[in-house]
Amino acid sequence: MPTDGGERVPEQAVEAGGGARCTVHVARVGREWDAASAEALSPAEQQRAARYRDDRARAQFVTGAILLRHAAGAALGVPADGVAVDRTCDRCGKQHGRPRLPGTGLEASVSHSGGLVLVAVSTGPAVGVDVEEVALRPGLDPLALAARTCSQDERRHISDVRGFVTYWTRKEAVLKATGEGLRVPLTDVVVTPPHEPAGLVAWRGRLRPECRMLDLDVGAHHVAALALLTQEPVAVLVDRPD
Ligand SMILES: CC(C)(COP(=O)(O)OP(=O)(O)OC[C@H]1O[C@@H](n2cnc3c(N)ncnc32)[C@H](O)[C@@H]1OP(=O)(O)O)[C@@H](O)C(=O)NCCC(=O)NCCS
Ligand SMILES: [Zn+2]
Predict the structure, then answer these.
(1) Which amino acid residue places its CA nearest to atom 34 of ligand 1?
(2) Alpha helices by DSSP H, the chain
(3) Which of 93, 135, 195, 209 is deepest in the core (most CB within 10 A)?
(4) What is the mean pLDDT of residues 27-46?
(5) Which of 24, 110, 175 is the best mutation target for the ligand 1 pocket, counting ligand atoms within 8 Å of the beta carbon and taking the most?
(6) Which ligand is located closest to the Cα atom of residue 181?
(7) pLDDT: is 206 or 227 the higher one?
(8) If you measure from the C-alpha of residue 180 to the centroid of ligand 2, how many angstroms do you get, rounded to a whole number?
């Protein structure tokens, strides 16, 4: 991924493994890509971008769309503008669904929150990535936030907002990898507690489902998690801006 100076940030190996590979690209909204012009987007993306009323939300979408094409192009060894992205929603057919890279064998996931955008591209296993900004507003009660997303047992492990957000990102990463998103209650996804490494404990009553998870270090103000629907080792690389 090019950065401001056009240099490539060294990739950081998070988990060594053979076979499949997943690269997570991290970008700041409006820094790396603020020069992104409309012609970098497909017609469908331009239409979507034009519909956002909120400038930040539009910038997040545009950053993610361009970063996704660069990430897939890098994985395939083709120019970014040669990558086609299909976002057909499996519910209504509009271009606002899970991103797919038809005919490439790659799986992808996009997430944005506050000033950060993450794009994960995997060479096989379905992937889900989720990033959330940790809002440390005084008076925010993490247990109240967790009431509808975490089980009673999970809530015992939440002592601050960051703990709640850690649960949220782990659960949402799994539901983005399955493609169901928030149609499924987050309480249906049982993940490891915040003080333990990320992992999927149970899914639809099944213990230890086939899923590898990682927490991603994206700085003090955000929490992020990655889910890959496989039991096989996956080499995960994180490509961050300086
Ligand atoms: C997908 C979802 C979990 C995203 O949650 P979020 O915290 O608001 O947003 P994030 O930034 O983490 O992720 C947004 C990205 O998720 C991706 N996405 C959308 N639907 C998805 C799905 N079903 N599965 C996986 N990823 C999906 C898109 O790439 C989107 O990025 P974009 O808006 O730039 O195109 C949530 O919006 C959701 O559950 N959507 C599906 C709801 C649905 O089915 N609606 C039917 C509409 S007809
Ligand atoms: Zn839809």
Answers:
(1) 61
(2) 43-51, 55-76, 142-145, 152-155, 161-178
(3) 209
(4) 72
(5) 110
(6) 1
(7) 227
(8) 12
CA of 69 to the centre of ligand 1 (A): 18
CA pair distance 70, 144, nearest whole angstrom: 39
Give the model's pLDDT for residue 7.
Answer: 32
- Residues 6 or more apart from 139 whose CB is under 8 A from it? none
Is 12-239 a domain of CATH 3.90.470.20? Answer: yes
Report pTM.
0.92
Measure the CA angle with vertex 138, ends 131 and 54; round to 5°. Answer: 50
Per-residue pLDDT, 76: 95
The pLDDT assigned to 106 comes to: 98
Determine the distance separating the centroid of ligand 2 and the alpha carbon of 82, expressed in angstroms: 26
Domain ranges of the chain: 12-239
Ligand 1 centre to CA of 134 (Å) is: 19
Whole-angstrom distance, CA of residue 63 vs CA of residue 106:
20
179: three-class secondary structure by DSSP: coil
Find the helix or strand (DSSP H, E) in which 206 lies: strand 206-207
Q: Which amino acid is at 14?
A: V
Please tell me the residue having the least CA distance from ligand 1 atom 28. Answer: 98
- pLDDT average, residue stretch 80-107: 95
